[in-house]
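wait is this the right file?? whatever heres the structure
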């Protein structure tokens, strides 16, 4: 029995036990459904082994939405706990676990997956490519992310979740103050998922640099592709820092090293520096693709070309550079001195300048435009004022002396969420709605989508604006309870109502997907938004090969010019198309990664050795495998194009 005690949850409650039962029943229902409908073969051949960037993008999207609801439940529980003084809905230990997993799930497994989903689906189409540069590596990236996410979420029911915050600061995350294995899950799951993200970054840099359509120079790329390029450069430089820090933290916990301990030469502040050298670029890894999405959406629904294209590109590059020069503002209060604080205060405020340029460019794009108030456009319009408020309060936090008042209060929580929610979540929902017809062949219902938008927009403001007041009044973040005389009750109650509004908005999105899948027309054409970029020049749904003929690009808006200026986009004849083969190796290899990670969490070394051997064998097999892909013959391409009601060009 001693062996099994290590798998027990350290803070069991009826909620945990009910969740275990619910997870078990859900898993049984899914497996039974796949078996009953005889879909195992289809699942394996079409999804688990796919290397198609579009299917991988859809799997990222589904995973991101699941993680959004997983993290959203945590948020509701936190807001419910603090909605009234002296509440006993959650214990202190439960609250610590919930706010830790909320942050990790939302940043690493929701937001990162969402941006990767849209990059996967859209970028190859926008640059006129057949697929990404390394399709099998792309599949490996997804399954590494997925297995990392599953390993982390397993902590909820086996062994216990981490409870030292999403930043996992040492010495709190060390063995003395976090003796249970929850932090092991954090360290190892994030390494597995982060490896997948790093591979994605390298893959998309090569794809964008080497696989653009003829004539598409760098300064003719769509803004979303530009934002994806800079984002993946940030990933390639930032994520190795996090990986090294996590490896060092793992060794401290499992092997007794002293990188981040308070004795024997350790330095806890080293973790803080490593984490935020990654962590602040991570903010822009999330936000820059959002800026690219808003650029596409605002241009499309203003019926105007994007104002100030060159300045938009330059501002993205400047933001990405400054992103590596501001990390110390996360610990202004930790004693590094006035000179250092002053330098990083200046760089922090400077980053607002290129961001402001982008906002003015979007406003000028809409100026004298014929604006269509579609759901994606509403999210884009709602983003501007809410994000501006979040950004301005960020400048306030960037004033080092004032930060002594704001730091570690709910003011900081309000600022962060009013940047991330409009700057990432609004953008992802705008992008999902905008590209949904190209992904699935039907449009989401506009009326239900607008109901969802207003619930989410109003809920965001109601949930987080009161935190500015309670924070200035002295409410510290991470407090799981407070007394009535503190006076925080009314502000926290308003925040709870705002969280309910957000929840209702996301429920409406789920209902919209169900309703539209059932009742929406499939006869929407290839370009239902009258858009401007190449992804809308493909057939709907997009065939495996993307383009029957590689497009020839001679402007920044090739599709728009072909529609309204008579320029020829497809100049060649249809020929045989070379495509990569599917492979089950990425999926199988990441199962070994999952098993190895689980073994490391519990220090089950025989399990780790066997899983590591499995990974090594698969790498060895791949090293000697010769896979030349396959060809889709021209006759089959013509038949597919004709069946999609298109001409053969």
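ok assuming it is, sequence goes like this
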């Amino acid at each position: 029995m001693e062996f099994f005690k290590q798998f027990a949850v350290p803070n069991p409650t009826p909620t945990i036990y009910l969740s275990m039962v619910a997870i078990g029943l859900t898993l049984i229902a899914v497996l039974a459904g796949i078996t009953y409908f005889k879909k195992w073969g289809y699942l394996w051949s079409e999804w688990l082994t796919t290397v198609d960037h579009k299917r991988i993008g859809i799997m990222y999207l589904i995973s991101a939405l699941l993680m959004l609801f997983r993290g959203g439940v945590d948020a509701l529980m936190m807001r419910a706990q603090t909605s009234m003084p002296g509440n006993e809905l959650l214990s202190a230990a439960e609250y610590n676990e919930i706010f830790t997993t909320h942050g990790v799930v939302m940043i690493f497994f929701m937001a990162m997956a969402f941006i990767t989903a849209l990059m996967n689906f859209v970028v190859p189409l926008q640059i006129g490519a057949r697929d990404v540069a390394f399709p099998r590596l792309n599949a490996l990236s997804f399954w590494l992310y997925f297995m990392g996410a599953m390993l982390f979420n397993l902590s909820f029911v086996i062994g216990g979740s981490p409870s030292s915050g999403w930043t996992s600061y040492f010495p709190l995350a060390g063995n003395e103050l976090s003796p249970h294995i929850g932090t092991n899950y954090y360290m190892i799951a994030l390494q597995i998922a982060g490896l997948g993200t790093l591979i994605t970054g390298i893959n998309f840099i090569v794809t964008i640099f080497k696989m653009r359509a003829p004539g598409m120079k760098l300064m003719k790329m769509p803004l979303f592709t530009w934002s994806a390029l800079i984002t993946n450069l940030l990933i390639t430089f930032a994520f190795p820092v996090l990986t090294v820090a996590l490896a060092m933290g793992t060794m401290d916990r499992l092997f007794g090293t002293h990188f981040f301990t308070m004795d024997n030469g350790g330095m806890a502040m080293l973790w803080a520096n490593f984490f935020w050298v990654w962590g602040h670029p991570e903010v822009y890894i999330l936000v820059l693709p959002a800026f690219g999405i808003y650029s596409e959406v605002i241009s499309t629904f203003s019926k105007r070309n994007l104002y100030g294209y060159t300045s938009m590109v330059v501002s993205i590059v400047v933001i990405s550079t400054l992103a590596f020069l501001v990390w110390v503002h996360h610990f202004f209060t930790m004693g590094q001195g006035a000179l250092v604080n002053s330098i990083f205060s200046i760089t922090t405020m400077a980053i607002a300048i290129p961001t402001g340029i982008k906002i003015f460019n979007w406003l000028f794009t809409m100026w004298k435009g014929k604006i269509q108030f579609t759901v994606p456009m509403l999210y884009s319009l709602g983003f501007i004022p809410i994000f501006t408020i979040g950004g301005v309060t960020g400048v306030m936090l960037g004033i080092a002396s004032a930060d002594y008042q704001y730091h570690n209060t709910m003011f900081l929580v309000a600022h962060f969420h009013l940047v991330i929610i409009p700057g990432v979540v609004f953008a992802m929902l705008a992008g999902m709605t905008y590209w949904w017809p190209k992904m699935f062949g039907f449009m989401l219902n506009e009326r239900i989508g607008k109901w969802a938008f207003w619930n989410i927009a109003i809920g965001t403001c109601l949930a987080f604006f009161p935190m500015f007041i309670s924070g200035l009044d002295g409410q510290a973040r991470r407090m799981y309870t407070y007394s009535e005389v503190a006076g925080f009750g009314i502000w926290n109650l308003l925040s709870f109502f705002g969280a309910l509004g957000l929840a209702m908005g996301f429920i409406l999105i789920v209902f919209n997907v169900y309703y539209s899948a059932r009742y929406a027309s499939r006869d929407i054409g290839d370009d239902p938004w009258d858009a401007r970029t190449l992804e809308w020049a493909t057939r709907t749904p997009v065939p495996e090969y993307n383009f029957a003929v590689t497009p020839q690009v001679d402007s920044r808006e090739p599709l728009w010019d072909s529609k309204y200026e008579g320029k020829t986009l497809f100049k060649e004849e249809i020929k045989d198309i070379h495509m990569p083969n599917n492979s089950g190796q990425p999926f199988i290899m990441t199962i070994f990664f999952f098993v190895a990670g689980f073994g490391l969490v519990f220090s089950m070394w025989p399990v780790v050795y066997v899983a590591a051997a499995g990974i090594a064998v698969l790498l060895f097999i791949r090293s000697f495998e010769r896979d030349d892909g396959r060809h889709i013959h021209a006759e089959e391409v013509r038949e597919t194009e004709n069946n999609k009601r298109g001409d053969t060009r």
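Residues 552 and 569 are 5 Å apart (CA to CA). so i think its the right one actually
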